[in-house]
Every structure is written in C-alpha cells, then in structure tokens.
Amino acid sequence: MSRMLVTGAAGFLGSHLVDALLIHGFEVVGLDRDPVAANLDGARHYRQFTYVRADLGEDELGEAVTGCDTVFHFAAPPVRQANLFTEHMMATSRLLDACEEASVRRLVFASCAGVYGRPGPNRETDPVQPTTGYGLAKQVAEQLCLCRAIPAEAAMSVVALRYGEVYGPRQQPAALIPRIVRAARTRTPVDLSGQAGHRQPLYVTDAVRAALAAATVNVREAVFNVAGRHTVTLDELLDVVHDVTGLSVPFTVAGPQPESVDVTVDLFNAYFLLGHHPRISLPDGLRRYWLATRTVSAGA
C-alpha cells in the first residue's frame, strides 16, 4: 500500500484530496497546523489515516515524509498578509528538503491561475506576472518546487497544478460562489463589487481528480492549468444559480467598478498530456453544492 502525504490537509481542497486517497486505498498522512481539523472528521474513521499537527515552517517534518511515495503540497500561503510571502517560501523550502532526504518519488504542488496576472486564456508557456501577494507567493513556491526536479541526478519529479476557481462543500464562506449561493438562499443581498470578468469554475471533485492524475503522469517536471470547462461571465454565473435553485440572487454593486481582468486558462495540456477532463458541468456542480450545503446555512 503506497503512502501519501497531504500538506494543508485540513483545508478545503486538501481535505477532499485526503478523502479521495483513502477511498482509493492509500495510506494517508494529513499534515496541517489546524488544531481542530473538522474537515477531516470523516478521514479519522479510516485506520490507514494519520493526522499530524505541525507547522511546515517550524516543526520537524522527517517522520511525516519518511516512506511516502507522493507528497501533495496543498498548504496555502498564510492569511496574515505581512508574512504571506516569507512564511510560504520557508515552509515550501523545508518541505522540499525533507522530501529529498526521504527519497520521495513525486511532489504535486497546488499553484493557482493567479500567477499569470493578466487576461486569458493563458497557456503554461506564457510569462507569469502576478499582481497580488498571494499570486507572487504561489509563483515563487512553484519555481522552488520545479527546480528540485531539473538536475539529472534528482530522484524526485514535480508537477505543479495552476488551479482556477475551485468551489464545493467545505469552501470558505467568503469565496464568491458560497456568497452567491448564500444570498439566493437567505434573500440577503451580496456585494459583487469588483467581481466582473470571466471565470472557469471547477467543482472540487474534478480538482481532486487532477491531483490524482498528476501523481502518476509520466513527466520529470511540468506545469498544467486546471479549470472548469465552462467559461462564464458573472451575469451568466448568476443565471446558472437561478436556473439550479429556482431563486434569483439579490446583489449590490458599490460605486464605479475597476476594469475587470479575465482570469481564464487554456486547457489543452490538461486534456491531452495530463489526461484530465472535468466531468462535472457548472449546473451539475452548483446543484451538488446547493444540496450539500442546504442544512449548513453559515457555510452555504
């Protein structure tokens, strides 16, 4: 039975990945600094799951990494803006050192489409010019990871996934789709200021399937865009929510709006090299999210 490590395991995407790995029969180590880790309540029922509460930037990582075939680095940069960049770089560097010492075969890094910083559709070979601290932290961490696989003597290969807008159960309530769905359900207007533009929402189970594909794709070091197959404007997204729920979305827009940037990506490499084809359409994904959160009004 192969052993897998997931950093950021208590988070939105990380916890769904843990669940999928356990269902596939892997031994899974979930690492996070969250002392509660409620998203992993289901995973704790599996005997082959181990939760390690640790800080990537400070704690010893050798025991968690030892014996792992694949490490999924899904820990996100910290919310504290002042330390966002330095903390994520330190955490990533320390994890990479531990992976090399433990002879990990493959590292999969969760990057983001925000590294492009300009209108799309963006290809993986296009220059990256992040315009936010979060995007910059992801870009530099991505390069740190990929560089470890370049030397001819490197034992570890690396795949970076530039995720678009992932949504689904367990997502933070402050994200766009949870706020829109909550507005439809509660009839409380949502502020959509600054949210115009195009997007490619990807349901979380499809995001996890891309990570599983990245663990086995035959490459030394590679980057893949991962996003939903539907590109929609904000108005079109609101229309789909209405069609799915039967409820209109009350919203407000405060003041003049900044010029929108289309955050979209080209998916050719994901389809034909990674072998990842999103299965969940936007209406189906929103319907699943609507039903999954119907009794959890605070997180809907």
From TrEMBL:
**Organism's domain of life?**
Bacteria
InterPro entries, from UniProt?
Epimerase_deHydtase, NAD(P)-bd_dom_sf
| Occurrences of domain NAD-dependent epimerase/dehydratase (ranges) | 4-227
**SUPFAM superfamilies given in the database record:** NAD(P)-binding Rossmann-fold domains
Q: Which family does it belong to?
A: Belongs to the NAD(P)-dependent epimerase/dehydratase family.
State the PANTHER family in the record: DTDP-D-GLUCOSE 4,6-DEHYDRATASE-RELATED (PTHR43000)
Under which name does UniProt file this protein?
A: GDP-mannose 4,6-dehydratase
Q: Per the UniProt entry, what species is this protein from, by scientific name?
A: Planosporangium mesophilum
